[in-house]
């Protein structure tokens, strides 16, 4: 037996300044880092979207050259998915999961630190090729779409750089997912059985499983691109006996669950917010859990609905069509449960609730257009048009991004100790909600009229709605700069938040003081 | 989680300190095998179709997952026993058996609960003697740590009063 490790008896302070943030293993610090990282990327990816909408403001080439435009669409997609939405949800998970289950921290705090700190370097690697040309931003970045389809992506000179960045993003996600699973399984407060966990925790638990299952597929896919490009293999090169279509199969085996990785935590957020402001328990808790699990399972067996037009056998098309449409069932369970929760509730419409209701309505709209595209013969018409751009932006912007914003408004008083100014929050909400519809709703029309996606120029018949869409885009972009103002104002001061913050809020995180202090759980967590 | 046992006079007390663990080894192994099987099944599926590079990544992930689960379970088995008798305060730490031992005269032992100057950070509880100190209960919730500090201080104060 050895002598227990002793320390000199002097004050052991936590590191300060920048070293605090680099070396931190505290879940609240890391959650904060993730959320700011996500917000910065939202602005960077948003700036790219502004370039896209500026170019599409009118037909003809005005602002950028076609290659630069393609680079913008590629980088916008990658940054928004891997840099904004996913880190945003991981940030919320870091902040909330330990507090919601009564744990002192995440199960693997050092791994948590690594998961985050890989991200900025990966993001820099992803963006850096844009700055490597002879002139500033002369278009050396990836320009083959976020889906990196072979053989187009194989023509890119700096593919190895890109693939390394994707690997780093993948490692970060996997470590984050492992940490979340370990935390939820192993660190729940006594009495908190699985079926007593808050829905946000449940949805993240299932999301983490999805991440673990599909990330190796992405890693394998990009590695095969790498070996095809530099080591003479022919996984996807037809000339060597490979099959480029198989890249699409492999990619979407990852890519479709990825869509649910970005939306399941959003379901969790909304399932926390709606009962609070309806002042009723969530309707059909168990069915919500099972619906989430069903959606996750189905997400693995529907990938080829992204590729109805590649020339699959009819049996394959039919299978993927039926499987896809089946997802509507558990999703509808969720939507109806949210509605039933609101039904005859003592509803109030504070800012988080407004965002949550907008989520339910607008996400459902995106879901309906998804159903339209799930029907294979109809998809032959919609495929690669602006209709799908409208669809996935309704799902990802008014779905995932709106839910993250809702979550920030909901939990910000707990994090900062200050209430958000309701007037500012509501201005942000109405400004965003109106402008996002001006931005994306017309894209349904131009898509149905036949405008292809990912083009910098278009026929004049699409001009009017493109102009409307661009105006909406600029307004929506500005609204998010206003959000930054609201955030900073709330962090700096404001009306003092109570411990419970919202009258109808229930759960362990609302039993501790606001802001969530070092003495998390001053009274023993009790789970009823 | 803290369990305190004292004799009737309150002179000799023991505290068994352990982290909260909501999953046991058996469940951990079952969950791990289920995740590993599904992960490897995906890898094997692609390998059978000629896309073998997915499999090593799946394998690597399964290894990392196993390591993470193992680390969590091992950490969950950490135990700390603080014993106070008539003249000694003893701290024992270990997993399954005592692996580290530290003791000091009861009369000179000090209990220190240091708040971090960063609001979000947890406090640190330690037993100090002269220039040495041993941290205890680092894996506890804040409430449990504060309670333990209060109990230890009360017992030591009781000692000071009776001598």
Mind explaining what this structure looks like?
The complex is a heterodimer of chains A (528) and B (163). Chain A has one domain: Cytochrome c oxidase-like, subunit I domain (Cytochrome C Oxidase, Chain A, Up-down Bundle). Helices cover 65% and strands 1% of the residues of chain A. Chain A has helices at residues 18-23, 27-55, 66-101, 109-127, 159-186, 199-230, 244-261, 264-278, 285-298, 314-326, 328-342, 351-374, 376-382, 386-416, 422-448, 463-492, and strands spanning 2-3, 7-8. The model of chain A has no long low-confidence stretch (mean pLDDT 93). With 163 residues, chain B is an alpha+beta fold. Chain B folds into two domains: 2-22 and 79-162, PH-domain like (Roll); 25-76, no CATH class. Chain B is 42% helix and 31% strand. Chain B has three helices and eight strands. In chain B, helix 1 (25-48) packs antiparallel against helix 2. Chain B is elongated and about 75 Å long. Classes of the chains: A mainly alpha (528), B alpha+beta (163). The interface between A and B is large, with 66 and 69 residues. Strand 1 (2-3) of chain A pairs parallel with strand 5 (97-105) of chain B, so a sheet runs across the interface.
